[in-house]
Every structure is written in structure tokens, then in C-alpha cells.
Amino acid sequence: MIQDIFPHKLDNAYKNKTATDNDYIVIFDNRSVVVEKLSDKDYRFPKYSQIKNLINAENLRYLFSVDDNAYYLYTAENTQSVQDKFDVLSLVEVRKMKYDYFKEMYFLICTAWHIYSWYTDNRFCGKCGEKLSHDKDERVLICPNCENHIYPRISPAVIIGVTNGDKIIMSKYAGRPYKGYALLSGFVEVGETLEQTVEREVMEEVGVRVKNIRYYKSQPGGIDGNILSGFFCELDGDDTLKVDTNELAFAKWFKRDEIPVDDDGFSLTFEMIGKFNEKV
């Protein structure tokens, strides 16, 4: 999955540091990211030494480190001078790159995007409307007027493998850019356990009951800012699917030899499908 970048190690603890020449700078423009293209299959973020004359260092915010390499987010809105010098990839393009070397970079882009989105969505205090300030010692935004503290938002969601013997429910979302196959999924609501979310989402999306709910594994939620928890569960009763067409364009029971997708090496969803497919 995207977080499996061994032997490299992510250190996401906030540090009050100043960028140096060999540090990497992450720059987003809408839903695109600035990269340096080294070859057709090799990209990296620009180094500070390459762009320090094009940006204002006051707009750099420490993100994280990988091994001995530090990464900073450039928070200024006008980045055209940097874009003119480098390549710009949409986040959709980045996700489609299947090269093994790109897995680490995709994870870093997703993690940086999560923090970037949090910064851009929280410029003013939700209590009093004052402009927020960055704390120097931890990753938190603080209101100088009412002292409201805003930490990065993480939205919990579940991925659900509903099985019935040698069959599993696969679906396609309705009204979303992604048109491929997926397992059932949904966000956790206030007051719910993860297991209760599994039961509710399955009933709402395909109208069946489940039992023997078992936790499988978790994953950072890519560019959506989620934490995804994967669960397998078994059909409990009638297997007739009553599809909620507001949520799903398609849902069907698939036998193991009918499953139309393979593990993509990136997502919890496809790893779970692959795990189910192994148990022949």
C-alpha cells in the first residue's frame, strides 16, 4: 500500500526548522503538483537551492522528513515563476503512475496534500473570525484572539469486503470521477463505532445484513485526508442486493474467478480484494 515505503522511513513530527539548499520543496497549484522531471520514469520535488531565488522563504512551512531528507510546503498562492521552470502533474496523473519507484513519491504527495488542504481550509478562526497563526513548536493553528486551537483534520472511513462463501460484493461509485471497481465504503458518523459503520453502510448501499465483522488493516487515505480501516464481514441472510443508486452506479456479487481487478500495490481496497482472492 502507499504507506509501505520500506526501507525508507517517514518522520512526520513537526519541527521548527529553516530550509537548506538540499531540502525538497513541495508546491501545489489547485490539484496539481510541481515536480522536476529527471527522465520519463523519474521525478522528484525541486530542491530549495533550485528555486530559492524564485520564492519567498517566509512562505515555507516544514512538512516532514524521510530518512535524512527534509520536505517543506510552499504556501504562497502565486507560483507561476516556479511552474515555468519545472513540470506540473495533476494529482490524477500522479495516481496513475504505476512505476515502483514512484510509490514513495506518491505517498509523500498525498501526505503533503493532506496538510496543504488543512492549511488552506483553516485560515480564519471558526469561533471569532480572527486570522489564525502558526504555532512554532507543533503543527497547530492558534487564534490570537480567543486562543482556539485547530489541529489537522483526519476523517475516519471504512472499506468493507462483504463475502458470501466464494463471492464478494464489488461496486462502482455514482457521480464520482473514479469509474473503476471498488469495495463498499463510507465515513464514520458521530457516535458510531467502526463496526457499526460497517453494518450501516452495507445496509444503506446494498440492503443486506452482515455478521462476523473482522478488522483487516488500515491505510492513510491518499489525497482525501482520511484514515481508512478495512474490514471483512460475512453475509447474514438474504443475498439479494438492493442498490442505493444515489451512492452506487453498480454493485454485484463476484466469484473469485470473476474478479476483474488485481492488487495495484497502492490501495487498501485492492489489497483486500487480492487477499480474498487468495483463499481458494
Task: Write a structural description.
- The chain is of the alpha+beta class and 280 residues long.
- It folds into three domains: 10-120, no CATH class; 122-152, no CATH class; 155-278, Nucleoside Triphosphate Pyrophosphohydrolase (Alpha-Beta Complex), CATH 3.90.79.10.
- It is built from six helices and 17 strands.
- It has helices at residues 48-51, 80-83, 91-96, 102-121, 194-206, 268-278; strands at residues 10-11, 24-26, 28-29, 32-39, 42-44, 60-66, 69-74, 87-90, 133-134, 141-142, 149-150, 155-164, 167-173, 184-187, 210-220, 226-235, 248-255.
- The strands form four sheets. Strands 12, 13, 14, 15, 16 and 17 form a six-stranded mixed β-sheet that branches.
- A hairpin with a 2-residue loop joins strand 4 and strand 5 (42-44).
- The radius of gyration is 21 Å and the shape is globular.
- The mean pLDDT is 91.
Characteristics of this structure?
about 280 residues; alpha+beta; six-stranded mixed β-sheet; four-stranded mixed β-sheet; 6 helices; 17 strands; globular
End-to-end Cα distance: 23 Å
Please identify which CATH superfamily of the largest domain we are dealing with.
Nucleoside Triphosphate Pyrophosphohydrolase
Number of domain modules: 3
* Secondary-structure content class: alpha+beta
What's the CATH architecture name of the largest domain? Alpha-Beta Complex
What is the succession of H and E elements?
EEEEEHEEHEHHEEEEEEHEEEH
Mean pLDDT, all residues: 91
